[in-house]
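Weekly sync, protein design subgroup
Attendees: M.S., D.O., the rotation student, P.L. (late)

Item 1: inverse folding check
M.S. brought a backbone from last month's batch and wanted to see whether the design step gives back something sensible before we order anything. D.O. pointed out we never logged the input encoding, so this time it goes straight into the notes. Structure tokens as presented (445 positions):
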């Protein structure tokens, strides 16, 4: 019980800090907010762009066999018929007649008992479709219905041959996309964990059936390496969970789960999708989407797909939880609770601000700005002028800035600045001319 309360308290602290420091806040807050929609403020935007940049570099730019795509959010409605989303993409839900809470049946311990109030006066389970509907064109009727994409991978399947021809890729190869997805989730909850509008980062790898399990294992290992080595997650904060029940076309599926303060939750899915998607789009579009292997006597192969799929928002939520820290060293000395140093220990490659330049006095702002101008070309930098130097350090700790550069009166004489490391708290005097070199290698991954 105590642990649950502690975890709730931790989550509350993270949500409130995220709001106060301009990472994430409710969309349309002045109108009372809209459930399941979140805005990223200045530091959240920087963090999100950095997370996407690192993912893109790791999954696409560093690999000769993965290409990129940026497709539209609205596709031909048939795409969602072919994918099965219009038929099946829903959760069975039941309403409690007593307390009016709505529950997903598959998550209830006992299907006949309301987990909220214990009543057994429940409605018959009903299916809710999660696709978000809109209209394309001036007429709002059934002929003009379209859907906001529920996952970014479907346009990848649809555009497979366009990408293949343009890039002259041969099997096996992958196509990746980062973009918005929309789901009319019944119960958006746990901050951004389950939102109605979110960003996915997906990679679909097309290969031959006989080599697909090797690729599945390969991508599982690559993705775990990314979490441990690049995002800096500790071993005990992640676990893998193999799905017991597989779709009839799939050979394997698993989740990478993160230990959120509210419990273990899915961070990423690795899915063997068989030939299902390509066969369905072939069938519905009446186009032959087989791959012709000219290196193999023109053999026709329906590509098998292995997918890695993660939400950018969920990655950010996991990072906020993983990197939040309270340093008690000062409090232990002074006995004052207000001396707790709150720090986001983001890896330097994704920190929203990588280097903050702090002139010791406002009189030094012009000179300090010259240092900022130099660094801002290459790194996410900030010139922080207002408040005492102690308060500015605290502010930068709360934003998660790994390095603060203090420009003092001596800097005018010795052309050097003091660099303070967020984690070790060590300070080092570095010549301004060497700063760029000093930070290269420290701020990438
Ligand atoms: N193409 C496969 C696919 O979409 P999924 O398990 O439904 O699979 C993949 O979603 C990932 O997308 C999840 O692991 C999660 O990170 C993210 N995601 C899914 N639904 C989400 C939601 N409602 N809010 C935030 N992120 C979500």
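Designed sequence read out in the meeting:
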């Amino acid at each position: 019980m105590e642990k649950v309360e502690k975890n709730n308290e931790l989550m509350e602290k993270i949500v409130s800090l995220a709001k106060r420091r301009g990472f994430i806040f409710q969309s349309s807050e002045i109108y009372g907010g809209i459930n399941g929609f979140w805005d990223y403020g200045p530091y959240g935007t920087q963090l999100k762009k950095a997370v996407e940049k690192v993912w893109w570099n790791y999954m696409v730019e560093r690999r000769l066999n993965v290409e990129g795509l940026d497709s539209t959010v609205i596709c031909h409605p048939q795409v969602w018929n072919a994918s099965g989303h219009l038929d099946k993409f829903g959760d069975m839900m039941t309403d409690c007649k007593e307390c009016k809470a709505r529950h997903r049946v598959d998550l209830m311990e006992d299907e006949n008992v309301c987990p909220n109030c214990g009543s057994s006066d429940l409605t018959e389970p009903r299916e809710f479709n999660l696709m978000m509907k809109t209209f394309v064109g001036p007429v709002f009727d059934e002929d003009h219905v379209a859907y906001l994409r529920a996952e970014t991978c479907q346009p990848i399947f649809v555009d497979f041959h366009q990408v293949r021809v343009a890039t002259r890729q041969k099997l096996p190869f992958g196509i990746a996309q980062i973009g918005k997805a929309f789901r009319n989730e019944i119960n958006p909850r746990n901050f951004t964990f389950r939102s109605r509008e979110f960003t996915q980062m997906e990679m679909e790898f097309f290969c031959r059936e006989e080599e697909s399990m090797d690729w599945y294992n390969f991508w599982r290992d690559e993705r775990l390496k990314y979490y441990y080595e690049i995002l800096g997650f500790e071993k005990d904060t992640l676990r893998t969970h193999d799905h017991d029940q597989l779709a009839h076309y799939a050979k394997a599926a698993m989740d990478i789960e993160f230990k959120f303060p509210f419990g273990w939750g899915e961070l990423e899915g690795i899915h063997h999708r068989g030939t299902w998607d390509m066969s369905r789009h072939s069938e519905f579009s009446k186009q032959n989407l087989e791959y012709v292997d000219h290196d193999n006597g023109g053999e026709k192969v329906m590509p098998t797909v292995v997918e890695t799929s993660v939400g950018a928002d969920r990655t950010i939520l996991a990072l906020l939880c993983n990197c939040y820290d309270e340093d008690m060293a000062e409090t232990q000395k002074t006995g004052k609770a207000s001396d707790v140093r709150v720090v986001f220990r983001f890896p330097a490659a994704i920190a929203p601000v990588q280097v903050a330049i702090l002139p010791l006095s406002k009189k030094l702002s012009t000179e300090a700005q010259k240092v900022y101008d130099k660094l801002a070309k290459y790194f996410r930098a900030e010139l922080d002028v207002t408040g005492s130097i102690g308060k500015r350090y605290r502010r930068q700790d709360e934003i998660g800035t790994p390095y603060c550069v203090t420009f003092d009166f001596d800097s005018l004489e010795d052309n050097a600045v003091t660099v303070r490391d967020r984690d070790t708290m060590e300070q080092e005097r570095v010549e301004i001319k060497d700063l760029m070199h000093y930070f290269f290698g420290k701020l990438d991954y």
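Discussion: The longest strand covers residues 263-274. The pocket of glycyl-adenosine-5'-phosphate is lined by residues 151, 153, 183, 185, 194-195, 198, 200, 202, 266-269, 307, 309-311, 313-314 (CB under 6 Å).
Action: P.L. to compare against the previous round before Friday.
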